[in-house]
Predict the 3D structure of the following.
Amino acid sequence: MLMLKDPSLLRTQAYINGSWVETGQAFPVENPATGEVIATVADAGIDGTRAAIDAAHAAQPGWAALTGKERAAVLRRFHDLIVANADDLAAILTAEMGKPLPEAKGEILYGASFIEWFAEEAKRVYGDVIPGHQRDKRIVVIKQPVGVVGSITPWNFPNAMIARKLAPALAVGCTFVARPSELTPLSALALAVLAERAGVPAGVFNVVPSLDAAGVGAELCASPKVAKITFTGSTRVGKILMRQCADTVKKLSLELGGNAPFVVFDDADLDAAVDGALIAKFRNAGQTCICANRIYVQAGVYDAFAEKLHAKLASLKLGNGFEPGVTTGPLINEAAVAKVERHLRDAVEKGAAVVAGGRRSNLGRTFFEPTLITGVTQEMAVAREETFGPLAPLVKFDTEDEAVAMCNASEFGLAGYLFSRDLARVWRVAERMETGMVGINTGLISTEVAPFGGVKQSGLGREGSKYGCDDYLELKYLCLGGI
Ligand code: ADP
């Protein structure tokens, strides 16, 4: 059983209009490491979603009427409460999602950093004064909140994916209906407990857990009361939402699939590249959308890199995320394991060699051993599709042009990584890489102070940074005549 310092953080009702509601329907939430049911959560369904949209719509003008400073004060308290309760929030997160407890705590603090950042930004939603185009005219541009935001988020970051949407939305005066992944609703509900304690008014933040992802998604997209959808998840579902938003011409932010290339040039600091690859590939057991998916290594250092990475894999410890020292938890479910196995089988059939791992762990079910394969080519599924698991495939290349061409031979463009000590090459390759983010001599790029997002079929919009409010704001131009 989950032991919390504050057991009231574990809520199982939907949170609608400031009330915790049972809905008559419920679904189980499992611990992916053990298969054990942690809790049974109320299913808000389409009716609950509609009620949440109505509440958010009614609450929005009042919330937007507060000053930025007043909203900032609420968000600041929310941030402080998240930090104060980080241990419990991390435990809930590890229980429902599986990642190691220290990594879960890292996610909680990462999520909180967005609340802090946008609390600060709430006071800085500046407009513009534009010199008039006629002598008797003056032009002013103001920024206003878009209105009600519908949010749909995945299970791999059950806290942070919500926090980094919720924070800018609330900061600028939007209200919010969150539909968390059905696999990880408890972290979202725990956030709502703390938002309520921080003084977020009823209706401003609603959480509608539901098994009916498609139904709730369709309701959010169709409702004329929802002004914007923000989504993190697969490109497949992102496209469905985009189509569904066409009827009401809704604004959309999409953070979709990646297939991140990770390039190691001959002149790289090889130890740094190995450390970078380890973190970019194996963090969250490979289950992040910016995980290195294909590792391109220049011929001159290919064997040395493979050897060093192989040796480093020994530092990973697979296990239940609650056990001390564990660095790599289970995958979210058996379907995720099956996908890793499919990619591995396809690669081996086409000539790749397994250097380390390569099979399910004897820990059972959802555990897969950290795996390294060499001799990978662009034709293999592992180089074309997002694996979302602890499988590192090494592809050999000869020239810079060849590496860039391989990086860009993808419909995705979220993150890319490159390791080189040649400054000119760093600039050239970073500029040519068709991605929204480039990690240069680092495998860790996520922070609230930088704009996170992708190009091509990896999405629309940016989250975090001074640009992060833009997705939740409309520009309004005021033309003053007769002056
Ligand atoms: P992932 O592979 O990260 O789980 P998905 O796109 O399948 O990506 O899921 C992301 C989120 O979208 C999850 O909360 C999931 O329940 C939800 N989802 C899945 N299908 C739909 C749909 N048709 N409409 C709206 N949301 C959906």
About this structure: The chain has two domains: 7-256+458-478, 260-440. The pocket of adenosine-5'-diphosphate is lined by residues 152-154, 181-182, 213-214, 217, 233-234, 237, 240 (CB under 6 Å).
